[in-house]
Write a structure and sequence with these properties.
The chain is an all-alpha fold and 71 residues long. The protein is built from 2 helices and no strands. The protein has one domain.
Length: 71
């Protein structure tokens, strides 16, 4: 699912950049593109952090289950 969201963000950003370039590029276009880049990267970072948190929880659950089985 995260890969799908990353792909969507890439496509959205590319479409916006293309739309801004249709009449030339000025400072406001560059600022808009920078803002889109930042939003996309923060969204991807959030997905990665969320995924890492899930992995940690799963590992903790596995270790807890193994400990309970030993006792």
């Amino acid at each position: 699912m995260d890969d799908l969201k990353k792909g969507y963000r890439e496509g959205e950003e590319s479409a916006k950049e293309a739309w801004r370039k249709r009449d030339g590029e000025d400072l406001s276009d560059k600022v808009g593109n920078l803002g889109d880049d930042i939003r996309k990267e923060l969204g991807n970072l959030g997905d990665d952090v969320r995924g890492a948190g899930r992995d940690v929880r799963r590992e903790a659950d596995i270790r807890t289950d193994e400990t309970v089985k030993r006792v």
